[in-house]
Structures are given as structure tokens and as C-alpha cells.
Design brief:
The complex is a heterodimer of chains A (413) and B (206).
Chain A lengths: L28 E5 L11 E7 L2 E8 L7 H5 L4 H9 L6 H16 L5 H29 L3 H22 L8 E2 L2 E2 L7 H24 L2 H7 L7 H6 L5 H5 L6 H4 L20 H24 L19 H6 L1 H13 L3 E12 L2 E12 L4 E5 L1 H7 L1 H4 L7 H9 L3 H5 L1
Antiparallel strand pairs in A: 1-2, 2-3, 4-5, 6-7, 7-8
Chain B lengths: L3 H10 L4 E2 L6 E4 L5 H11 L4 E9 L8 E9 L4 E8 L7 E3 L8 H12 L2 E3 L29 E2 L14 E2 L17 H4 L1 H4 L11
Parallel strand pairs in B: 2-5, 6-7
Antiparallel strand pairs in B: 1-2, 3-4, 4-5, 8-9
Classes of the chains: A alpha+beta (413), B alpha/beta (206).
């Protein structure tokens, strides 16, 4: 198939109006969007300078949702911090839990059993579905297609019900612990997961049919918010935004964790890096996530769902605590002192739904990190706005923001 | 575990770098003034195309050097990380040269480090606060900044409501509050009641 490429230079605002050059007075206007505005999906504020309808300067202002999570992390044990990670990327909270404990386990140098890994993979992919359903729905809504938003949110609700069965909470999951999980999966849960996957697959195809070849949607997205491959790397974009620009990078393939190398899945990559490519990448990632979940459910291993060897890291089982002195002391020490991790500096990144989420732990030993750095994917994905917005039209703002699929909790931390 | 071939190849190219103990990837200490040249070479000649993260650590009031800036580089070709650490020479006015001319993404990362730690990035095009508001006087991630916060003036008169006293941000009430520990101390010593003797069962909470 031959590929058609378009050369669209949006950089020079005046060039697009060359025919009317003499009629332009040249006055620029500054407008302010947000921090509370439906198009900004959270508390993002954009200071925009416009020349007529064309944006000539964009200055994002963030920090409205800054809660000092890094500071809080220095004052509590590793397991106490797990619920705080729910509040980072709160669209797919369970993935933050998994990424954080993976970082702590890397510091401890322990591995979890195969069953635990498989459960975590299902959780991660469910989080990806959750996040992409919101991302796709909101993107559609920003482009004026409200129906898609209703469809995807109905399906997302079903994933919340799965989470409720799994850990008791619908939204703030707090499911993982260093060295294992909060508890094993409930009976019959895997069957429910498969049913929900089927429903999501159907709706994803429906949204695909509704919008991907929709002339109005196509015209609004193609060629808007173009990010080249080199720029995407330089801006440190990650996740679907980087892959939309043609960066073939997915940590699940590049540096497999949780046994991702045993699953068969493809990584979709865009070619032009515009909003339309980012849409296509997310639609395809939903399909791939469902594929991974089906494989994980199929070969769900039997066995323990926590690391039995890590005595000073994961709590002993309840019946042993109640019947044996040794385990009682162990349980007491774990609850009061936290999981005992060694000294060291560890950097761990995982492929979160929004992109690469990184935890950098500086430990001086013991149950509390000396410094915990959280690098949210949305922070880097938003930092490119001053470049991405320039040359776009004012009606393109919601499209570009919707296509970046950011979440402010992750950006401001 | 540390990849020996990776650190050996970096060591060979830059014999003046000091190796640094690390739990995962190769890590090196680098004097701040040589950071931009080193980064340029690593990016263009050694394939570390992307800057995955840039952050800082405060080693405490008594430590010297007090602040270190951590650069996490990532190579897409070899799927390897590399950590470069620059210890700031001054503890009072810590500064390192900027790398914004090498990676556009470093712009916001350096602003965040400046905001949180007060480290100056010489040559940064727009070094202003990013998460806190512009007039905020403190650097919250420094170790001498308490968890509960310090009173500080609010950004402007338009955000000051009547119920907020003196137009100041308030210190979080910690008595009976969250159970917090800190690195190197046990939880039992860190219980709020152990810290704040003014609070007791008979007296009402603050």
C-alpha cells in the first residue's frame, strides 16, 4: 500500500493568511483557559496568546493539584504509601499500585510467584482498559461526539465492579503490597473478567466504527497537533503519545517485567504523530490489552499469590499468626516497622496506561524511603504543550488536550 | 544488579568519571560543570537518546555535598538506563548547568527541581516555580521543611477568603493526625503522641 504524506506547516501563523495580510491589524489577544474548564480535563490552566484564531503562544500553568506526595512518602512505610499511589493516575489506579511495589521489590531484590505476576498483569491491563476507555470517550467528546463518551463510560463502570469484587473499593484500589497482594482473587472473578472483556471489545469496535472513519472526526484530527518522532523523544513523551509519533518504545516489550515476555501482543505505532494517530494507537491498545488478559486468564497458574520467602517484607498468613509465636512477632514487626528493605538507589519504570511512570527510591535501609521520586507520564506529556499548541486554531485546543490523555493527579502529584 | 559491560564501556570512554554504587543500572558521579558536555556526548555518541528523569536529593542539613542532581538516561537501542549524579558544590546556593538545550523535556523537570529544592540551573530559559505559586518563599522537598508545612503568604488578595487568617497558608494540624515515620526512626517513636506531648486524651484535639 502506498503511503501518502502531507506537508502541513502550521508553524507560521501569518502564512496561512497571506491573502488577507493587509487586512490584519496584528493585535494579539491573550486568553486564559482553566484551571476549571471542561476542555482541560482537570485543573490545568493555559495562558494562550492568539492572533485571530491562531495560537501564537501557549504557557501551561500546573500545580493546582499538587499534594506533595513525594514529601508524604518520606514520612511513611512502603506499604502505607500504596494507597497514596492510587491518587497519582487516578484513571487507572491499580497500575500505580503495581508499579510502586515493583519498584520496592526491585530494591529488595525479590520476585513474586507466577500466580501473583499473572494477577498483577490482569490488573495492569484492566487499568489500561479503564484509562483508555476514558481517554477515547473524552477525546470523542472533545471532538463533539458525545455518544462515544456514554458508551465507554458504561463499560468502564463494569471494570469498577470487577475492582470492587477484587479488593472492596471501586476507585481507590490499594490492592498490592510489597512482596505480594492484599489478597487472592475471589472465586469466579476470572470468569467475570472475561465477560467484561467481551463487552469492552464489542464497544471498542463500535466506537471504532463510529469515529475512526467518520468524516467530521477525521477532518478535525488529521494534521492537528503534529509531534515528530525526534521531538517526541526530546520532550520525553511516553506511552500512546510517543507511539503515535512513531517511537517504537513499550517497556512491556523492551524491558519486560511481570513476565510480559510470555504474552503474545503487538505494540501499535503511528506514523505522523497527529491527534488522529494517537486515537488509532489507543483504539488498538484496547484490543491488545484484551488479548493479554485472555492469555493471562487462560494460563492462570496455581500456587501462592505472595512471596513466602520474604519474611521481613510480606506478612505471614493469618492462621499462622494466630497459632505460632514466630509468625506473630513477624506480623507485629511488619505492621509497626514496615517491610524492611535494604540500602540502595533504584530507578524503576513501568508502562502505565498514560506512559512511563517511574519511581526512584533512595533507601538508607529500613521501612521508610529516604527519598521517593515519582515521575508521572502526564508531566512530560504536558510539557510539550508550548510547542504543540503553537500554530493550532482555538477550536483545536480541546482536540489536542483530549488526544494527549493526561490526568492532573499524575502531573502535579 | 549492575551491568558490568555497560559500566566498563562508559568507564573506557570517560575515564575521569567516578563509579557510584547502584542497585540497578550503571551509575557515575560527575562534577557539575562537566555535566552538559558529558550529556551531549552520551546522547550523540553513546545512544542515550532520552532523558527519562531528572531529580534531586537533599542529603540533610549536615551533609556535604548537601544536594545531588540525578539524571536518568535511557537508550532506546539497547534498552539500558544510565544514572549520572552531579553533587552541587555549594550547600547554600546549589547550582548546576542546565541541559535544556539537549532535551526539551528537561525544561519542566529542572523547573520542578528548582521549585522543590531551590537548585539553580544556570542557563535555563525560564527558571520559575512550577508546582508552587511564584511568590512562595520555601522549597518544600528540602529536609528542613517540615511535613506539616510552614506558614506562608497566599498568592494574591483575590484568593484570600475571610475565614483564612492573615492571608497565610496554615500549618497542618498533626496532633493525633496521620501516623508518620521518618527514615531511620521506628514507627513507635514517630507516633504523633510521642512527638507532641501537649495532646492527651483529656485535652481536646487541636
Amino acid at each position: 500500500m502506498s503511503r501518502q504524506t502531507r506537508d502541513i506547516s502550521f508553524g507560521d501563523a501569518a502564512a496561512r493568511n497571506s491573502a488577507f495580510q493587509d487586512q490584519i491589524k496584528g493585535d494579539k489577544m491573550e486568553i486564559n483557559i482553566g484551571p476549571s474548564h471542561p476542555a482541560t480535563h482537570g485543573v490545568l490552566r493555559l495562558k494562550i496568546e492568539i492572533d485571530g484564531e491562531i495560537i501564537t503562544k501557549c504557557d501551561p500553568v500546573i500545580g493546582y493539584l499538587h499534594r506533595g506526595e513525594e514529601k508524604i512518602a518520606e514520612c511513611m512505610t512502603y506499604n502505607q504509601f500504596v494507597p497514596y499511589t492510587d491518587r497519582l493516575d487516578y484513571i487507572g489506579p491499580i497500575h500505580n499500585n503495581v508499579t510502586f511495589v515493583l519498584a520496592a521489590e526491585k530494591l529488595a531484590g525479590i520476585e513474586v510467584p507466577a500466580r501473583c505476576q499473572a494477577i498483577r498483569v490482569i490488573c495492569c491491563e484492566l487499568a489500561r482498559l479503564q484509562s483508555h476507555l476514558v481517554g477515547l470517550g473524552c477525546f470523542g467528546m472533545d471532538a463533539g461526539a458525545l455518544t462515544v463518551f456514554m458508551y465507554t463510560f458504561t463499560e468502564r463502570e463494569k471494570i469498577y465492579t470487577l475492582m470492587e469484587e477484587l479488593c472492596g473499593a471501586r476507585f481507590t484500589t490499594n490492592y498490592t503490597r510489597v512482596g505480594g497482594l492484599q489478597r487472592d482473587i475471589p472465586d469466579g472473578w476470572l470468569g467475570h473478567v472475561l465477560k467484561v472483556c467481551e463487552a469492552i471489545e464489542r464497544v471498542n469496535e463500535e466506537c471504532d466504527k463510529l469515529l475512526t472513519r467518520n468524516r467530521i472526526f477525521y477532518d478535525r484530527c488529521v494534521g492537528v497537533g503534529v509531534m515528530s518522532k525526534e521531538d517526541a523523544i526530546s520532550w520525553n513523551l511516553s506511552g500512546p503519545n510517543a507511539r503515535g509519533s512513531g517511537v517504537t518504545s513499550d517497556l512491556r516489550k523492551d524491558r519486560p517485567y511481570l513476565g510480559y515476555e510470555n504474552y503474545d501482543f503487538d505494540v501499535p505505532v503511528g506514523t505522523k504523530g497527529d491527534c488522529y494517530d494517537r486515537w488509532l494507537v489507543r483504539v488498538e491498545e484496547v484490543r491488545q490489552s484484551i488479548r493479554i488478559i485472555r492469555q493471562a486468564v487462560d494460563k492462570m497458574p496455581e500456587g501462592l499469590w505472595y512471596n513466602d520467602e520474604a519474611k521481613r517484607i510480606f506478612r505471614p498468613s493469618k492462621d499462622k499468626v494466630l497459632s505460632s509465636m514466630e509468625e506473630l512477632i513477624q506480623n507485629f514487626m511488619l505492621v509497626t516497622e514496615g517491610p524492611q528493605l535494604p540500602e540502595g538507589e533504584i530507578f524503576f519504570e513501568a508502562e502505565n496506561p498514560k506512559g512511563r511512570q517511574a519511581f526512584f527510591i533512595v533507601s538508607k535501609g529500613g521501612g521508610v524511603p529516604y527519598r521517593l521520586r515519582i515521575h508521572g507520564p502526564s508531566f512530560s506529556n504536558l510539557s510539550c504543550l508550548p510547542q504543540l499548541m503553537v500554530g493550532a486554531l482555538v477550536p483545536d485546543i480541546p482536540i489536542i488536550l483530549g488526544s494527549l490523555d493526561f490526568v492532573m493527579g499524575d502531573c502535579d502529584r | 544488579m549492575q551491568d558490568t559491560t555497560q559500566s566498563a564501556s562508559i568507564k573506557e570512554a570517560f575515564p575521569w568519571l567516578n563509579e557510584r554504587p547502584s542497585g540497578d543500572c550503571a551509575a557515575f558521579n560527575c562534577p557539575p560543570e562537566r555535566v552538559p558536555a558529558l550529556m551531549l556526548s552520551l546522547r550523540d555518541e553513546h545512544g542515550y537518546k532520552s532523558l527519562a528523569d531528572l531529580t534531586a536529593v537533599d542529603w540533610g542539613l549536615e551533609a556535604s555535598p548537601r544536594f545531588s542532581v540525578f539524571y536518568q538516561l535511557y537508550s532506546q537501542e539497547r534498552n539500558e538506563y544510565l544514572r549520572i549524579v552531579a553533587d552541587c558544590t555549594s550547600c547554600v546556593e546549589p547550582a548546576v548547568p542546565t541541559v535544556t538545550h539537549l532535551w526539551k523535556g528537561a525544561n519542566w523537570l529542572e523547573r520542578e527541581v528548582y521549585d522543590m529544592f531551590g537548585i539553580d540551573f544556570a542557563g535555563h530559559p525560564n527558571l520559575c516555580r512550577i508546582l508552587m505559586w511564584d511568590e512562595y518563599p520555601h522549597h518544600p522537598m528540602r529536609k528542613d521543611f517540615p511535613l506539616a508545612g510552614i506558614e506562608a503568604p497566599l498568592p494574591g488578595e483575590d484568593v484570600i477568603r475571610e475565614e483564612i487568617l492573615d492571608g497565610q497558608t496554615q500549618v497542618a494540624p498533626m496532633a493525633g493526625g496521620p501516623f508518620v515515620a521518618s527514615c531511620g526512626h521506628t514507627m513507635s517513636k514517630a507516633e504523633p503522641r510521642a512527638k507532641d506531648q501537649s495532646w492527651s486524651e483529656k485535652k481536646p484535639k487541636l
